[in-house]
Design brief:
heterodimer, A: alpha/beta, Rossmann fold, six-stranded mixed β-sheet, four-stranded antiparallel β-sheet, 11 helices
């Protein structure tokens, strides 16, 4: 988890460009060899969603493989964010939400009445497009969620968990001396890594990210992409992204959506270099959206 | 230079408009300064420690009329007690309205309408309600028994006045509290939900603390309303000047004081003004100056909290 080669704020400007190019280069190289995927972390079966009278998804079926990075791509309004929100039941809060079909996690239908939603969301975490750290210290941001799921956690354990989460999110070195500082004072990229650390602190199995780099600069984006590559060894990652280059850089599998339907799903090399459907080919070559 | 860009005579409305508006603002500012200045000038003599720390004495001579310690204490008691009573209810109601109430239900509009109506009830009407309701025998605990063996309670005391006053400011504090809660960024709630934090816990630990400055501002402004109200206090506090007992500052007497009548700055002003029973305008102006300063300080405190929290972002 070293930061070698990543530009820090102290580096002179002249070196930053070199460092940035080096980073992008690293991310484009073939990935480190990974453990074979143990199977599907999440299974989506004939998922259909409507908000009130408006149907936004129809008959979507695919699997999110474990320990992989799966991209959900498609033009604006195609329903990819809706799919993502179905995976941790964040759509429940939206008035008029109705769904059909099944979503399974760890062999359990997550929409079963008996499922504890808070436990589901602990195991399936989410990071949003706009970083949303709580208006409290860096330490408290992480501690709050940990205490929610483990009310009797000791101070010592809490300190360890906070450090663990921040290290995993590649943020520890930057904030270790200022844990009590308000999270709102961090930069955009740091805030987003804090949000990732927060999700990691409760030991999830899956991390969902909804265009996490959309509001970040290229250097911060590169850092988060590298982070996601590292994390995918231990966690399952699903990421909605508009950035096709990003999908190509870091993802293993790609799901392409168009007007509420899953058009194609397959390994990244196949979807980008050898798509089965014409719409897929047009999209990945930038003809539209 | 293109001649069509040159000014083409005086555009009357555009030039006069700002001037007229400026004059209107000037009138308001002048009225403010004049009223305030006149009060301070007339009541300047009151702003010394002796006056503030002496109890009023019954006397026709102004020099021996004492000070305004009791009315000041009365205002403080009323403000503190009514805030203590109404704040938890207001915050609870605001939370429910902002977070749990389903806007689509038909009874939601009924609740909101009820609050609007409550906000519009004149304070003297509240006072009448207070006397009528709290004179009932079951409320004897709130005020003294009245005449020996009487069937009704006296119906006037600090407790009664605080309750009625609390209800009076309730719509206002609920409204500002609800707005504060609603204006907390939705990202906090989403982030908390995605972490598996229950809604109520997120409210308790994240949303309400973030809304606290706004709620505090509303509460302080409500205190200003309470300090300045006359009709409710005059009707529900009893028309006396002194507390129910001497040595009122000693703790064992507090319950008796609360269950008894007294005066606040507002009723004292009314009492000593030419329209009231007394006729000591010097005292009236003195109390008026103090009251205006109290309300001013409260408003400035509210403004300060609002500015500080906005700066902290």
């Amino acid at each position: 988890m070293s930061n070698a080669g990543i530009a820090t704020e102290e580096r002179p400007a002249a070196n930053r460009t070199e460092a940035l190019l080096a980073d992008l280069d690293t991310a484009a190289k073939p990935r480190r060899s990974r453990r074979p995927s143990a199977g599907a972390a999440l299974t989506i079966d004939s998922l259909g969603v409507s908000y009130g009278k408006k149907q936004v998804l129809a008959d979507v079926s695919f699997e999110v493989p474990e320990h992989r990075i799966t991209a959900l791509i498609g033009p604006s309004g195609c329903g990819k964010s809706t799919v993502l929100r179905c995976l941790n039941r964040m759509n429940d809060a939206i008035t008029g939400f109705r769904m059909e079909g099944h979503v399974s996690f760890a062999g359990q239908d997550i929409y079963d009445r008996r499922v504890d939603v808070t436990e589901l969301r602990r195991a399936v975490g989410m990071v949003f497009q706009q970083p949303n750290p709580f208006p409290m210290s860096v330490y408290e941001n992480i501690a709050l969620a940990v205490r929610e799921h483990n009310p009797r956690v000791s101070r010592h354990e809490l300190d360890d968990t906070v450090e663990f989460a921040l290290r995993q999110a590649n943020l520890w070195d930057e904030v270790r001396s200022e844990l009590k500082r308000s999270a709102l004072g961090l930069s955009g990229g740091q805030q987003q890594r804090l949000c990732i650390a927060r999700a990691l602190a409760v030991k999830p199995a899956v991390i969902l990210l909804d265009e996490p780099c959309a509001s970040l600069d290229p250097i911060s984006t590169a850092r988060i992409e590298e982070l996601l590559l590292e994390l995918s060894n231990e966690y399952t990652i699903a990421i909605v992204t508009h950035n096709l280059a990003q999908a190509h850089r870091i993802c293993d599998d790609v799901a392409f959506f168009l007007i509420g339907e899953l058009v194609e799903f397959g390994p990244v090399s196949q979807v980008f270099d050898n798509p089965r459907r014409r719409e897929t080919a047009e999209y990945v070559r930038g003809s539209f959206g | 230079m293109n001649s069509s860009m040159l000014k083409r005579g005086l555009r009357l409305r555009s030039t006069l408009g700002p001037i007229v508006c400026g004059l209107a603002a000037l009138v308001v500012a002048a009225a403010c300064i004049f009223i305030f200045g006149y009060l301070i000038q007339q009541g300047w003599h009151a702003l010394n420690w002796t006056f503030l720390s002496t109890d009023p004495q019954p006397s026709l001579l102004e020099e021996q009329a004492g000070g305004i310690r009791i009315p000041i204490a009365g205002t403080l008691i009323l403000v503190i007690l009514s805030t203590l009573l109404s704040l938890p209810i207001a915050v609870g109601a605001a939370i429910y309205l902002a977070e749990y109430l389903d806007e689509r239900r038909w009874w939601t509009r009924g609740i909101r309408l009820g609050l609007e109506v409550l906000a519009g009830v004149p304070s003297v009407v509240f006072g009448m309600f207070g006397i009528a309701m709290f004179s009932k025998h079951m409320f004897t605990v709130l005020s003294s028994q009245g005449a020996e063996g009487a069937q009704a309670a006296f119906g006037r005391s600090f407790l009664v006045a605080s309750i009625v006053m609390g209800i009076h400011v309730l719509p206002f504090v609920i409204k500002t509290a609800e707005e504060s809660i609603r204006s907390v960024p939705v990202g906090y709630r989403q982030g908390a939900a995605a972490l598996g934090i229950t809604k109520f816990r997120a409210l308790r630990k994240i949303v309400i603390p973030a809304a606290a400055p706004g709620i505090a501002t509303g509460t302080i402004l409500g205190m200003g309303l309470t300090a300045g109200d006359t009709a409710i206090v005059w009707l529900t506090l009893g028309g006396t000047i002194n507390f129910a007992t001497d040595n009122w500052w000693q703790a064992p007497h507090w319950l008796e004081v609360l269950r008894g009548p007294g005066s606040t700055l507002t009723t004292f002003i009314y009492f000593t003004s030419p329209a009231g029973e007394g006729n000591a305008t010097g005292l009236a102006f003195g109390a008026a100056a103090v009251l205006v300063l109290v309300v001013l300080v409260l408003n400035l405190a509210a403004l300060l909290i609002a500015r500080l929290s906005a700066a902290r972002g």
